[in-house]
Automatic annotation (TrEMBL):
Gene Ontology CC, one term: cytosol
Name of the gene this protein is made from: pdxJ
Pathway(s) of this molecule: Cofactor biosynthesis; pyridoxine 5'-phosphate biosynthesis; pyridoxine 5'-phosphate from D-erythrose 4-phosphate: step 5/5
Species the sequence originates in: Fuscibacter oryzae
Binding positions for 1-deoxy-D-xylulose 5-phosphate per the UniProt entry: D13, H14, R49, H54, T104
Family annotation (Gene3D superfamilies): Aldolase class I
Subunit and partners: Homooctamer; tetramer of dimers.
Name this protein carries in UniProt: Pyridoxine 5'-phosphate synthase
Length: 248
């Protein structure tokens, strides 16, 4: 499973954040997603949160209908989200923990403590043809539990690594990186497809992109921010260039 091309999934949630700040129809997440597609994104990720703070149900429907590249539907493991996913049948469903008070997804999903429920939760999604992904930390317990419940993919949470890197705590960032590398190798050995994401930027992406078992990165906030300066297409192309360079 190693040595494959590294895919870039672009998360367009924060296009909706800007739109919602004015309560208008602009900017349109689908238009941004189509620009991302034209710039070389391999997939689009959108997180339909319980409180609909950015992406809305109508955005998910428009993305599902309008995209030529795979849609990764990120959501909490609730009955409401399962029903929406079963109706839309996106390429992938990424399950994340969700707390109302958080600004972004803070930690990984606790798959190990919720194995029985998650096994039956993902069964109809798998039967509908969705690739089910667990957004987890690099802890071996969570990786092994993800394999046991029948998930196809794990997305390793790179938020802690990104924070340490941004704070200049480079020894700790290196230790976190080593743990992510071990986690990726374990997941791959268990037959899981390995993705990674959260907090990735031009400055910190290379060591994550270089992990051979990782075959997809999902990146949102930084790219949407960078698009203010460069435009979305060039911002994505530069990320793609850095990922490919790190992979060589
Ligand atoms: N992957 C998952 C599962 C996420 O929850 C997020 C944030 O929505 C991302 C990737 C992208 O993180 P960021 O916006 O920090 O690039």
């Amino acid at each position: 499973m190693t040595g494959r091309k590294l895919r870039l999934g672009v998360n367009i949630d924060h296009v909706a954040t800007v739109r919602n700040a004015r309560g208008s129809a602009w900017p349109d997440p689908l238009r941004a997603a189509l620009l991302a597609e034209a710039a070389g994104a391999d997939g689009i990720t959108a997180h339909l949160r319980e409180d609909r703070r950015h992406i809305r149900d109508t955005d998910m429907e428009a993305l599902r209908a309008g995209l030529g590249i795979p849609l990764n539907f990120e959501c909490a493991a609730t009955d409401e989200m399962q029903a929406i996913a079963l109706r839309l049948k996106p390429h992938a469903v990424c399950l994340v923990p969700e707390k109302r008070e958080e600004r972004t997804t803070e930690g990984g999903l606790d798959v190990a403590s919720d194995q029985n429920r998650l096994t039956s939760y993902i069964a109809p999604l798998r039967a509908a043809g969705c690739r089910v992904s667990m957004f987890i930390g690099h802890d071996s317990r969570q990786i092994e539990a993800s394999a046991r419940i029948g998930a196809a993919v794990v997305e390793l949470h790179t938020g802690h690594y990104s924070d340490l890197h941004a704070e200049g705590r480079l020894d700790e960032a290196e230790a976190e990186l080593a743990a992510l590398r071990n986690g990726a190798a374990l997941a791959d050995s268990l037959g899981l497809e390995v993705h990674a994401g959260h907090g990735l930027t031009y400055d910190n992406v290379a060591p994550i992109a270089a992990i051979p078992q990782v075959i997809e990165l999902n990146i949102g906030h930084f790219l949407i921010g960078e698009a203010i300066y460069l435009g979305l297409g060039p911002a994505i192309e530069e990320m793609r260039r850095r990922m490919d360079e790190a992979r060589r």
